[in-house]
Amino acid sequence: MEDIEKIIERIRFSLFSPEMVRELSAARVIIPDTYDDDGYPIDGGLMDSRLGVVDPGLRCKTCGGSVKECPGHFGHIDLVRPVIHVEFAKPIYDVMKATCPHCYRATIDNPSEKPPKGKCPHCKEKLPDLKYLKPTTFFRDGNSMLPTEIQDWVASVSDEELRRAGWNPEYARPEWGILSVLLVSSVKVRPSITLESGERSEDDLTHKLVDIIRINQKLEANINAGAPQLIIEDLWELLQYHITTYLNNETANIPPARHRSGRPLKTLAQRLKGKEGRFRYNLLGKRVNFSARTVISPDPKIRIDEVGVPHAIAKELTVPVNVTEWNIEMCKKYILSTDYPKAIYIIRPDGRKIRITEETRNEAAEELKIGSTIERQIIDGDVSIFNRQPSLHRVSMMAHEIKVLPGKTFRLNPTTTPPYNADFDGDEMNLHILQTPESQAEARLMMKVEDQIISPRHGHAIVKPQEDHVSATYFFTNDDSFFTKKEAADLMYIAGITNLPKPDKKELYSGKLLFSLLLPDDLSMKIDSKLGEQIVISKGKLKKGAIESRAIEKELLEKIFVKYGAKFTRKFIDDVTQMALKALSWHGFSVSMDSYTLSEQADKKVKAIEDKVKREIENLILQYKNGKLERSPGLTLRETLESSIMLATSRARNDAGKVVESDFGIGNPSIIMATIGARGSLLNAIQMSALVGQQAIRSKRPTRGYYRRVLPFYLRGQLTARERGFVFSSFRKGLDPDEFFLASMGGRESLVNTAIRTARSGYMQRRLIHALQDLVVEDNKEVKNGRNAVIQFTYGGDGNDPMFATSAKFFESVRQDDVDTV
Amino acid sequence: MTKSSSKINPYSAVGILAAQSLGEPGTQMTMRTFHYAGVAEHVPTGLPRLIEIVDAKKVPKKPIVEIKLKKKHSTKEKDAAKLASEMESVLLPETAIIQENLAKGKIMIKLRKEEAKLLGVKMDMVKESVKKTIGANKLEARGDTLSIKLKAEKEKPLKDLRKITTKLQKALVKGVSGIKRAVVIKNKGEYFIRASGSNIKDIIKMENVEPSQVYTNNIIEIEKTFGIEAARNAIVREMHNVMELQGLAVDIRHILLLADAMTADGKVKPIGRHGLSGEKAGVMGRAAFEETIKHLVHASITAEDDHLTGVTENIIVGQTIPIGTGRIKLGMKAAKPKKKAKSKPKK
Q1: How many domains does chain A have?
Q2: Do A734 and A662 belong together in one domain?
Q3: Do A616 and A566 reside in the same domain of the chain?
Q4: In CATH, what number is assigned to the domain containing residue A675?
Q5: Torsion (CA) A191, A196, A199, A200 in degrees, nearest 10
Q6: Is residue A4 one of the residues assigned to a domain?
Q7: What is the CATH number of the domain that holds A195?
Q8: A755-759: long-range contacts (C-beta < 8 A, 24 or more apart)?
Q9: Which of A139, A645, B79, B138 is the most exposed place for a label (fewest CB within 10 A)?
């Protein structure tokens, strides 16, 4: 078979000693240049062909491989004078602080006598006064130390002493943190780019290395020429600067090295760090093939576990199919096919991948052997993973079956909209085609939409009827919903029911009767409806009450899911929503301007409410000015006034709500939608038909703006309703200019808040995930973390799955022999 | 598949589940603040409070303490009100005028009679408090005035006087230190006290207070006074309150898991890089989170091993993660294949 899979057990981190660096190096780099005039790499230069190849056609001088084969090889630069590695400066300082520069033993603890102050407890020599100035400067008794001095010091510290300080001298000694030879990364790590103009552009690291070699050479020349110590030390410091910025260009207290354009260079540390660094961008995030992305649109007629895929996409995406003796004929058909469901590649048992073309088609089908794999275009019924970002929880990625449809958008059933938090105002989603049998099986068994109908967050339905589905189900199961025989047959056909029951009201069929056909025969439950009545289902028959949103998502779906399983629930949702929608399309349901127009009497009542708030507020202001307002505990007088006004305004809005509700009555579509939970709230209706109400900035009445007034429309110093953001108009009537500005202030605040909130909660979630991701339930329901420490002895205290915890009550009725034995 | 047991499946990634279940509703939360009438305004709820809990902040932005009275006093409003007024802290500047006289090296403290009466402060209380803060020897009382004199030779008037006055500004005359406003609240025929600021240690020592019924939203303080188990319960309660107040349904198990993870080591640890994430098992896991370079440097000088026990580490090296279906390993002995028991199924 294939190669035995190797498993990495552990990875050890350590430092390179100068000897190891030289051993590792394939080339000593001495020339601060890259390519010669002919465009070939210079020997001993930074693009030396012993360091690997990036130009096609050339071969690596170390391993002989081509661009694709050669992994790249390290080189080295011999530094004439050692230089401190910035990141190890602090650890080295810690070693020096803890040791004596005379006997190199630890200055802490002394077994017998109290150490003389400022002297080594072992050799009694005076300890120096050490200072460390970030990033790489050290002072000994006020004089700056050269890296060579430091190197000598820490190199003399014994292994035992280092071990006590936490170092592992076998793998890392402090003097290795002072570089006498610099490891040069391979060309593969810093490839040069050829621009359109044919000009070469070097990587930031190469630029930095050029600087390092140049200064190194200059330093060497000066030393050899016997230049004064001062000049040598200056150059030495410059070399230190270049190597520091080569390692980390964001070192504190050091100006970052810049590109000619003024952009700071991206050096080694910057390559690893942060969101765009190697770890988070490349190692934890991968770009994938076999995926597609387009706009989504709704299709209530496909199943909830399907995704409508445009034909154009279905043609591009492929699935591998293993050729076996049972499917070889089918595979041949795919190979021979010239249009849509066809095979595109054959992977022969020896691993060769062959594209099927017009010419090779017949021959390929002929030669097809068992053990080969074909890659065929996706067809209806293939599994895929559908995803919408941000993927905040696991139900943001679910398995859907492919359904190839005409058009250019992904189609999804609106009931699957809540887990993805998707809407159809231009949202795009991603589709992934699984490429191995294992992943396909896993997706089918665990990730299907039907298995995710109940949210693991709270145990309630998350795949649930939306908007019109809810109104439709309500009207469908209403007390006065009746259908003729033809209509009833049409509806039942949707659910695939062919046995027409007996009509229950003379010639007519009630909606409750038809709805009951979808319910399991032994389902009995009582639900308290949002409308105040009780919904009674007994033995699979809906006896009383109309279904609303809460009844279906928090009661019905949960119980059905637990008792009758995911598949049944999926079909139930599909049938209920489609039947109800069909019925609603005959019934008709809409809102119009009239639905939001109050009667004349109600208008007068609203007017009275408006006058009342105005008067109340004026009264309060008067009391405040007369000093008669009683101060609430803990508030200033002014705050008391504001809070009483806010109370008055919210009371006004509630009063208006009552007027609106009673004037519109329960027959009004907007009220119906609000009460059954289909869409909108009473507040929306109030704001549209009666008054918009108080606008608040930071939960207070707006105060800032112009000098002593919020808007230039008003007189200065007024505290009355309108001047402080109370909008008397309704949306139907339209806002006056000043009211429009007030409403915009509130709107702006909420926009700003959402923007801030998403950023903050995103970071919080990242931290939560990182802190908790290794927690796992063991066989005995214990929860352990990554260090194998027990976090909980029984998950959640009772071992219940949160997905089913709220519906655990339903499990009591489950027969004992059904219980999982896993 | 019909679900026939409500129990959790082995190898479930319950940590990730909890993190997602607590993090996902974060985007839906409002920034609204809560208002305890008379005690404190703008008490954070929602996302800011959630972050505060998860960060295990030393002191919450608005500490609030709720105090129940001993049974026989809890039905009497008078008793509760008395306790509340005893509790409210009064600082020296609130009841007295502090005057410096630099020329004479003197500080004069004069009682503000009106305020003192209102707050129930008497002269000897002021005297006592001043004594406590700076010692008795420099003190001199005369009617409603106290004067503090420096020893002319020893002390430098300007510097030392100022030192004393700044101390006096914070001198506690009355009440429990840290408690600002205390209000009596009636709930189901019982009176209890709600106050801003929290200082459980001193409160539970007070007479008439039922020490087992004192609650604060300051988790760290609960940890210090009542121990780690109490702190765990406080985290659960606070988190649950936040979710409840926002009307977001989150299963209690997710909150329990978070609280248990935060308190597992016997100390309340925050979620971020200074807490749980910074102490994870794997080097690469830590490096991938935050402070990449710091973790790599530390790992290299100590020659640390990454045993690839975590999720992140395995993703980095490209192996299956040790959670969920990735935990299950199938092995097959490469022994001789036995003779086939059944003939191959025909197509």
Answers
A1: 6
A2: yes
A3: no
A4: 1.10.132.30
A5: 0
A6: no
A7: 4.10.860.120
A8: A756/B31, A757/B26, A757/B27, A757/B29, A757/B31, A757/B47, A758/B27
A9: A139
Say if residue A126's pLDDT is above 80.
Answer: no
What range does the domain containing A272 cover? 26-73+185-282
Interface test with B, best of A769, A782, A816 (most B CBs within 10 A): A769
User: Could you count the other beta carbons within 10 Å of the beta carbon of residue A100?
Assistant: 22
pLDDT single digits (tens) A643-695? 899 999 999 999 999 999 999 988 899 999 999 999 999 999 999 999 999 99
Q: Are residues A111 and A204 in the same domain?
A: no
A719 and A635 within one domain: yes
Residue A1 forms part of a structural domain: no
Can you tell me the distance from the alpha carbon of A402 to that of A400, in angstroms, rounded to the nearest whole number? 6
Claim to verify: residue A295 and residue A439 sit in the same structural domain: yes
Altogether, the residues listed in chain A come to a count of 822
Domain boundaries, chain B: 10-62+217-268, 90-174, 280-321
Angle between helices A669-676 and A682-689 (to 10 degrees): 150
Specify if A759 maps to a domain: no
* Shortest CA distance from A167: residue in chain B: B302
Which chain B residues are closer than 8 Å to A786 by Cβ? 280-282, 285, 309-310
Number of H helices, E strands in chain B: 14, 13
DSSP state of A258: B
- Following DSSP, what letter does each residue of A33-83 receive, concatenated? --B-TTSPBPTTSTT-GGG---STT---TTT---TTT-----EEEEEEEEE
Q: Phi and psi at residue A316, in whole multiples of 5°?
A: -85, -35
Q: Which residue matches tokens 């491989």? A: A65
Query: Hunting for tokens 């002269």 — which residue is that?
Result: B123
Size of interface A-B (CB pairs under 8 A): 326
pLDDT tens for chain B, residues 1 to 347: 445 678 888 999 999 999 999 999 988 887 667 777 667 777 888 888 999 999 988 888 888 888 888 877 777 777 777 777 778 877 877 777 777 777 776 777 777 777 777 777 777 777 777 777 776 666 666 666 777 766 655 556 677 777 777 877 777 777 787 888 888 887 777 888 888 887 888 888 887 888 888 888 899 999 998 999 999 999 999 999 999 888 888 999 999 999 999 999 999 999 988 888 888 778 898 998 888 889 999 999 899 999 998 899 999 998 999 999 988 887 777 766 665 555 544 43
Whether A620 and A503 map to the same domain: the answer is no
The topology under which CATH files domain B280-321 is DNA polymerase; domain 1 (1.10.150)
CB A569 within 8 A of CB A586: no
Domain boundary among A557, A589, A621: A589
Residue A145 and residue A94 in one domain: yes
What's the pTM? 0.89
Tell me which H or E stretch contains B146.
strand B145-149
The CA–CA distances, whole Å, from A788 to A647, B52, B233, B312 equal: 55, 28, 24, 16
Tell me if the domain spanning B10-62+217-268 has CATH number 1.20.120.
no
Task: Judge residue A717's burial from the number of C-beta atoms within 10 Å of its C-beta, 0-12 exposed, 13-18 middle, 19 or more buried.
Answer: exposed
Question: Residue A266 has which token pair?
Answer: 């991206």
Task: Say if residue A707 is in the same domain as residue A635.
Answer: yes
Pick from A545, A574, A589: which residue ends a domain? A589
Cβ–Cβ < 8 Å for A536, A526: yes
| Stretch 258-287 of chain B: residues touching chain A, C-beta under 8 Å | 258, 260-261, 264, 271-272, 275-277, 280-285, 287
CB proximity A522 to B under 8 Å? no
Separation between Cα atoms, residue A635 and residue A650, nearest integer Å: 20
Torsion angles phi and psi, residue A543, rounded to 5: -90, -40
Kindly determine whether residue B315 and residue A805, on different chains, have CB atoms separated by under 8 Å: no
